[in-house]
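Example (one chain per record):
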Amino acid sequence: MHARAATPKEVRRLPEQRSLRIAWSDGHLSEYPWEYLRGWCPCAGCQGHGTERRFIHAPPSDLNGIAVVGNYALCLTWSDGHDTGIYSYRHLRDLCACTQCHSIEA
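Predicted structure:
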């Protein structure tokens, strides 16, 4: 299975570490700091309507909720009231900062 076609098998909030852990269907495990995820929010309010994605500096927020969107994404709800980011599984996998994920050819 190509890594970017993988889907989450388990998604877990880790409040003590302020991170989100995803166990993927291909056996990979990703962990994302909340500030990192909030900064890479893909919504139009954070990213605008262009094609280039950028990290935004949002106020520190707690990850309050996670909802599955169809078979392709997660919607994350933040303590600052932000809840419009639909994080596709591919976007989340692309955000994985581990060496293994960054060595995968696009």
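Caption: Helices lie at 34-39, 44-47, 89-95, 99-102.
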